[in-house]
Amino acid sequence: MSFSLLRLALVDSTQSFLIRHPELGFCAVLADHQSAGRGRAGNRWESPSGAGLWLSVRMPIPAIPPGLVLQQAMAAVIAVLAPCGVELGLKWPNDLVAWKAGRLVKVGGILGEAKGGQLILGLGINLASAPLLPDRRIPPAALMELGAVGLPSREVLALRILAAWETLEISGMPAFRWPVAGEALSWVGGLGLCLGWEGDGRLRVATPRGIEWLSAGEVNSLVG
Known about the structure:
The protein is α+β, with helices and mostly antiparallel strands and 224 residues long. The protein has 2 domains: 4-178, Bira Bifunctional Protein, Domain 2 (BirA Bifunctional Protein, domain 2, 2-Layer Sandwich); 184-223, SH3 type barrels. It is built from 3 helices and 13 strands, in the order E-H-E-E-H-E-E-E-E-H-E-E-E-E-E-E. The protein has helices at 14-20, 66-81, 154-165, and strands at 4-11, 27-34, 52-60, 89-91, 95-100, 103-115, 118-126, 176-178, 184-187, 190-197, 203-207, 210-214, 222-223. The strands form 2 sheets. It has an 8-stranded mixed β-sheet, sandwiched between helices. The longest helix has 16 residues, at 66-81.
């Protein structure tokens, strides 16, 4: 399936726009600027004009485990961005990250909302600039400040990502994934030691209570 792409100069949120307009069917929307961009767990995603890529798409729900959908979608984004020359990775459960001066930084995020056999994916990538959020343990960063070269226009980039999302059932492997086995972790309400990523998208950790499996719906902020 190929998706038609609508481009808007200004919208509250590409995700909210598609939710409000089910009559548009399977399609995608790209915004130059979002006034109320959305992140995971209800967080606000800063998305001023010219700073990044703000894209949402309505599609059929892929035939893969629910916990893998967003991971596979972000892995596809990483593959599309590979030519820019920045080594990008996947932070569990589904953030786009890179290393900067030995520190993990967040370049993008993705969210998904499923309803009635349909899925709306929402993607934000900091291309030219990133917000200043000094209180974040994993601070935001932009691809250009990390040395990205040869980035296409936002519309071309969006079309390439949409093409990659047509086959989310095909597994991709990013350059790196974080955390790795043996990494000490903490999250709201818990701490543990990473034991590895499971095939269904969960993270296996050793905690003071024993072996536990974390799912994206249970953990909103994972740090080392």
